[in-house]
């Protein structure tokens, strides 16, 4: 990823015409001038992995139960959500508003699909997204949180979800959860072949078990757009970097707690597309998270021991450019012709912004200022 934008900064004007960056040497008549006060302009970041159907954002505090395993977390999630009174649309929408006010341009939202839920979560997140389509681009992943093969009927619901608001097919630990690598992947790649939808597969499994699944996913990728989320097994394993790059398999990382974090430098140097996300935000899994992707770039830098300006800038590039590419959005380099989707932050450099995690002074989408000082300016289209 090119870091010239972030490491060679000079004061200049930004001109926006019809929602795109334009050559500032000519100024059309009736130009509206917004004083940026010398703030730093950065491409708006993308949250490439978030679970908004689970969030309690804007709701009373939720106390969480102890959990030692992934299964414990899943079961605790089901129990906690049964007691939630606010709708998915209300909770997800509140989190969307907060994320947009902090500069987020787009989401890839993983939304639980299972016989226990039907497609209610997909419908709720899509409802919230449609109400904010002028503020945020949202891709929905139909995610088999309760298991794909071990929860009969889930595969059929996931295919239906693609007709009712979902855009991407999700998977989850073919071995660790379903105990059947080839059976799980047969279903996922079969759905992808029939529908043309991309795949995004959670992979928490570590060690050789995790690496074996990565190899098989890469082998099957072919012309299918595939993302592996988390991929903890790859944190210290570089032998598969070239394989992933050649197969076109993308990765997302969330820089979570004590979990392994994917190394930015080696993966991007090998040509692997790497994006970042929030994962859970104030949900039954975790009390942490806020949907702020500038803060998430900070966590990614901290967890990967970024020190130089270039290393810090590379972490922001993962959040901005990596996320945009993963979601199929146009890249924003703040050059003439680019979409006018950017933030203005009080920092002298991107390195300083990543470390300080400032609240954007302005959030600009399609050339319109939609938030100031961490607050949305309006909600209607």
UniProtKB/TrEMBL annotation:
Transmembrane segments: none annotated. Residues 33-367 form the Amidohydrolase domain. The keyword Protease does not apply. The keyword Heme does not apply. GO terms for molecular function: hydrolase activity. This is Cytosine/adenosine deaminase-related metal-dependent hydrolase. Signal peptide: none annotated. SUPFAM superfamilies: Composite domain of metallo-dependent hydrolases, Metallo-dependent hydrolases. It comes from Nonomuraea africana. Keywords: Hydrolase. Gene3D superfamilies: Metal-dependent hydrolases (3.20.20.140), Urease, subunit C, domain 1 (2.30.40.10).
């Amino acid at each position: 990823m090119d870091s010239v934008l972030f490491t060679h900064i000079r004061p200049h004007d930004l001109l926006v015409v019809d929602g795109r960056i334009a050559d500032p040497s000519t100024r059309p008549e009736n130009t509206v001038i917004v004083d940026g006060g010398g703030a730093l302009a950065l491409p708006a970041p993308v949250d490439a992995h978030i679970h908004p159907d689970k969030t309690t954002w804007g709701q009373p505090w939720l106390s969480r139960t102890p959990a030692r395993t992934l299964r414990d977390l899943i079961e605790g999630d089901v129990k906690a959500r049964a007691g939630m009174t606010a709708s998915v649309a209300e909770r997800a929408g509140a989190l969307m508003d907060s994320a947009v006010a902090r500069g987020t341009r787009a989401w890839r939202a993983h939304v639980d699909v299972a016989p226990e839920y039907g497609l209610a979560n997909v419908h709720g997140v899509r409802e919230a997204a449609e109400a904010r389509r002028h503020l945020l681009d949202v891709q929905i992943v139909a995610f088999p949180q309760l298991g794909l093969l071990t929860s009969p009927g889930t595969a059929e619901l996931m295919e239906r979800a693609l007709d009712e608001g979902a855009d991407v097919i999700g998977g989850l630990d073919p071995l660790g959860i379903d105990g059947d690598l080839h059976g799980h992947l047969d279903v996922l790649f079969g759905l992808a072949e029939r529908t043309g939808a991309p795949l995004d597969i959670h992979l928490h499994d570590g060690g050789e078990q995790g690496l074996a699944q990565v190899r098989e996913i890469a082998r099957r990728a072919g012309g299918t757009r595939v993302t592996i989320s988390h991929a903890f097994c790859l944190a210290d394993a570089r032998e598969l970097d070239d394989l992933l790059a050649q197969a076109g398999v993308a990765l997302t990382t969330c820089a979570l707690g004590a979990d392994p974090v994917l190394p930015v430098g080696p993966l991007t140097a090998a040509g692997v597309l790497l994006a970042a996300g929030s994962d859970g935000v104030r949900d039954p899994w975790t009390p942490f998270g806020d949907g702020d992707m500038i803060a998430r770039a900070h966590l990614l830098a901290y967890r990967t021991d970024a020190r130089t300006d270039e290393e810090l800038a590379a972490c922001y590039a993962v959040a901005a450019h990596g996320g945009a590419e993963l979601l199929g959005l146009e890249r924003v380099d703040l050059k003439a012709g680019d979409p006018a989707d950017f933030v203005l932050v009080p920092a002298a450099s991107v390195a300083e912004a990543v470390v300080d995690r400032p609240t954007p002074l302005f959030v600009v989408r399609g050339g319109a200022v939609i938030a100031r000082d961490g607050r949305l300016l309006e909600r209607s289209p």
